[in-house]
Amino acid sequence: MSQEWIYTIVFLAWLAGAAAFVIGLHQMNSPATARDGNRLSAGGMTLAVATTLLYLITREGGLNLTAWAIIVVGFAIGGGLGLYLARTVKMTAMPQLVSLFNAVGGGAAALVAIDDYLKVVGTAEENVTTAIFVVLGVVIGCVTFSGSLIASGKLQGLVSGKPIIVPGGRILTSLFALVALGGFVVLVLAAGGALTFDTTARTVVLFAIIAAGLLFGITMVLPIGGADMPVVISLLNSFTGTAAAMAGFVISNPVLIISGALVGASGGILTKLMADAMNRSIMNIIAGGFGGGEGVVGAVAGPGGTVREISPDDAAIQLAYASSVIIVPGYGLAVAQAQHALRELAEQLESRGVDVKYAIHPVAGRMPGHMNVLLAEANVPYPQLKEMEEINPEFERCDVALVVGANDVTNPAARRPGTPISGMPILDVDKAKSIIVIKRSMGRGYAGIDNELYTNPKTGMLFADAKEGLAALLAAVKQV
Amino acid sequence: MSPELLSSLAIFVLAILVGFEVISKVPATLHTPLMSGANSIHGIVLVGAMLIAASADSPLSYTLAFVAMVFGAANVVGGYVVTDRMLQMFRKKPAAAKAGSEGRPGASGNA
To answer: What Rg do the C-alpha atoms of chain B give, in angstroms?
Structure first.
């Protein structure tokens, strides 16, 4: 077969791969087809990678030994590492792993752009458009690489989850952005011949841009609190898509352009959906410094009421003799990895004829939808999981609402204007006939304000770690 | 701009529009798997890494291509596998109610 024929076949295979990504992503809109969608997408990826290899082998000159070694060994190491991490990660730690994968994706896009620039710099192929796409790819790729690593570190606890605010941090961030922008202008002008910079000087400028991009990613994410990380990861995911598209322009590859643009746009929409679910704007989140205890002084009509503490035995009696119980799981449950203990308690209650449901706030857990994944892992029957709109009218009729490690999403203060969480959709837990809250302390949630639910006369506070508290409750319920 | 670049730009813009439309009505439940799924797709940059590996001609170029290969492969393989793991949990829902109640004595015994 002639070269042209082979390239045509490879190009069509790339196109088929890109189509599989679009259809696969679309199928992931619904739980029934989501898994097939992901597999279709993986099939498209396999096809695209396999035909690329075919193209490289059959191309004039073929692949030399070193290139073979790089491709095979690089794939084996990266793929093996990815497979191992993806297989062994605990579902509670999954958000930071996604962020880590996002980081390396962004890094790869930046490296492809850097490599291309180093090859064309000083040659006839270096022109204005190449310079534009190279710099965009490098900057966006570097920002996502370092930013995603910080986000992952925050969720893993390697970097403090609290907003880290360095004096002058905002100025530094702006400075890095300026350096990158200045470098962009210089390289584009130099490529256009409007500026005389020799090859070495241009390479130095490129490395300055790389450094500025990496530092910008760090200083951008550090001041953002852990609770906002899901939105940040989603935003960076969208950036990585854009970086991949830029790398596609650099090496004139259609499948990179299509897939990158697809992820860039859909990731952007997803980020907006996530931010909406928390009633935050993306700009507000990036501005950072939200919550973490300091700064935001709750302009709340002080919950001067007293807190009523409840013992596991009393709580167990309430639960065991209730006819309906709604469980409200939150971040604390995910942190304590208490989802299995929770499911056991729920089953124990059901065996006594109690009607048990779970109220899932859209942002419960560490990411939207994360709580569903965690409870599914613990074999909680799917029909018992109720979304916020569905469960809210049912709180009035329920005997006991059991809140495990959820805070801000249950705070009635959100219904009033003038608080940091005003307007955030909440679960109407306060409407239940009685409320039991398992919580380690009276500590505040991410919004940094007191939860008025805790001082409600109907509320009993069971102070314990989610896992220990649930174990104590289970033991007590068995005794009843 | 060259005709090739212009058609690439057209592809880029159309793909962005597709991206906006393709996920508009997603239940919050699926936000995390969807993000993870989109995350795997930008692993396509692996194809870019292969292409630069093939045309590498200096130690620096080989090094960049190698690191890009490792990164891209980790993104692709890990991304799809972890997404599948998440979605597997959604999938077994109808059966899970049964499996959950059958496995109850054992499950509560060892936890």
So the answer is: 21
